[in-house]
Amino acid sequence: MAKRVGRRELNKQATRQALLDAAKSLFAQRGYAATTVREIADEAGVTERTFFRYFAGKEELLVEDLLAQMPMIVEAIERRPYDEPPLVAVERAMVELIGRFQDQRRPNALLLFLDRRPVTGLGRSTTTLTVRFEEAMSTAIRNRLARRDPVPPDLNFRAAVHGRTAVAVMRTALIHDLYLRNAATDPRPSLTELIGQAFAMAPQGWGVSAARVVNEPQ
User: Residues 21, 129: one domain?
Assistant: First the structure.
C-alpha cells in the first residue's frame, strides 16, 4: 500500500517548489548575482527565515536547478543517432539544449562549473555535483554503447572515460566564454561555437569536426 503523504509534508513540498520556481524566474530575469535571498522569498510569498529552513543559501538553488536538468541532458544524449561517436553525440545534444535559451545565454546553473565562479558556501557540494554530472554523462553514453552489436567488452570503463571527458570539455568552453566576456572581446564566438571548437580539440579528435573524417565511431 502506498504511503499516504500528510498535509504538513505536502505544504513543505509546495513551499520548497515555490522557492525553486521563484529563484528560477528571478535568475532568468535579473541574473544570479543580482538576485537576493529576500527577493526570492518575497516572490515565493514566504519570509527569509522560511527560506533558510529549506536552503542554506541561493547557491543551493543552482545545485537543485542543475540536478533537475540532468534527466533532460541524459535523454537528449541518448536520442542522438547511434552512428555518432560518443562525444559527438554529447556535443550536439548540449548545443541543442543550450541553444534553447534566449540569446544563447548561459544557464545560471552552469556557473557552478566555472573557475572563480561567483558561488560560495557550497564546499564539498560542488565536487559532489561535478561527480554527479559526470555520472549522468557516463550513464547516457553507456546506454548508447550498450545497444551496439557487439557490446564493447570494456563498456563501463569506456563510458566513464567519455563521460568525464565530456564534462571537462564543457567546463573548458564555459570558462573560455566567461574570459572572452570579461575581456569584452568583440566579435567573439557564441557559446555553442566555443563548445564545438572545444570538442574538436578533445583527445583523439572526438569532436564534430573530427567526426567528419572518421568513418568508424569511437
Answer: no
